[in-house]
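Consider the record:
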Amino acid sequence: MVDKFLKAKHWQLFFLLIGVPFGSFLTIIAIIVSILKEGTQPDPEQILNVFKFFPLVIVLFASLLFSWFWSVAIGLQKAVPTNVEMKTTKFKIFSIIPLLSVSGFGVFMFILYSTIKPNEIEFPSEWIAPIMLVLCIVSAFGVFYSIYFAAKTLKTTELQREVTFSDFASEFFMFWFFPVGIWILQPRINTIREENITIDENMNF
């Protein structure tokens, strides 16, 4: 899976990260609109049964995005110079936390909308709000660290030396604004992967 993300072309990755989730959102919205246009009083339960898929689309999007970050940060480690130490364990922990948070919340909302009636929805606000606040803060840090580490890994493999944030600040923001950054970053990722494969082949030969 890692290598598939590394060798994917920029347009393929854009379609996967943007096209698939966005298309899923539009499909759900189109179904809801068609229900509302039936001319009769719309059934709230019917709309709720469709709406419950929104959280799953968010989980799909988060999974694809973090798979890309993971592929860059872990998959390019073999191209990092031996004299540079990169702590992948910390990256793995901080990248899994937000993904688990989003996935857990998405599955929870899906189950909630699947089992409860529209007039029975009531959130236990006295404890859900603090938990959500903590999860959001921890997840936000995890997201930024994942972007930071992926950008640092990419630049380290290109410069073949220890780098500082000033060296990879532009890559950090391109990973952050990935719908645009994909078109610039992914060709460079493809090049590093191909060069590393060539080196391995020459060494084996």
User: Anything to note?
Assistant: The chain has one domain: 2-204. Residues 201-205 have pLDDT under 50 and may be disordered.
